[in-house]
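so ive been stuck on this for like two days lol. basically i have the seq below and the ligand is magnesium ion, smiles is in there too. i just want the complex predicted, nothing fancy, no docking runs or whatever. if the output looks off dont worry ill sanity check it later, just need somthing to start from for the group meeting slides
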Amino acid sequence: MDFNGSDTITGPRTEDVLPSTATAAVKVVIVGGFGVGKTTMVGSVSEIRPLTTEETMTQASIGVDDNSRIEGKTATTVAMDFGRISISEQLILYLFGTPGQERFWFLWNGLFEGALGAVVLVDTRRLEVSFDVIGRLEERGVPFVVAVNTFPDAPHHPMEALRHALDLPDEVPMVNCDARQRASSRDVLMTLMHYLHTLAAQRA
Ligand SMILES: Nc1nc2c(ncn2[C@@H]2O[C@H](COP(=O)(O)OP(=O)(O)OP(=O)(O)O)[C@@H](O)[C@H]2O)c(=O)[nH]1
Ligand SMILES: [Mg+2]
């Protein structure tokens, strides 16, 4: 440990301290298949330095994980991502990114506890990895929005065709996004908040 350098304990950084105006906190889960950009989204939008649990993918994952269409991907989430964003002076979102690989899906139970809603990230080059994810959310009754992460070489499909392919009800909001962009990721979360608000108003 370097006592003169960056490891010196100096207390929380200003961005780590919750604003005193915060009155409500909501837990949101970011889900999706392997390599769709969940860790990227939590990282781009979080105000605090995100906590990630990424491990380098090894030879052992070849043949187990389908990384054949995710060139350049060298790390994968093994437990969760965690971040935080203030939506307004009062409202704070806590973001939990799930692992994409099916062998870690048993962790979902803990990650979903107390979650009000979810974002499903979708890669149109590999739509099939989204089916199970959406099915699991529907089973749990967790409201969700679908965000189509626009990878440059991904084929473009009209939203309605994607809705049909994913067998989504009309009321589930769908948006395009670039998970690397803070503003875009933030827009996705705003869409989810509006949707949760609409659902709550309908129930009332
Ligand atoms: N072009 C482009 N690349 C992206 C975008 N989002 C993520 N990536 C890249 O896609 C790769 C996978 O992103 P991750 O954020 O690790 O995906 P993940 O869903 O967390 O993956 P797992 O945890 O392994 O399931 C990374 O190399 C990112 O840099 C995007 O919107 N556009
Ligand atoms: Mg990840």
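Residues 38-39, 77, 97, 100 surround magnesium ion (ligand 2) (CB under 6 Å). The domain at 23-203 is CATH 3.40.50.300 (Rossmann fold).
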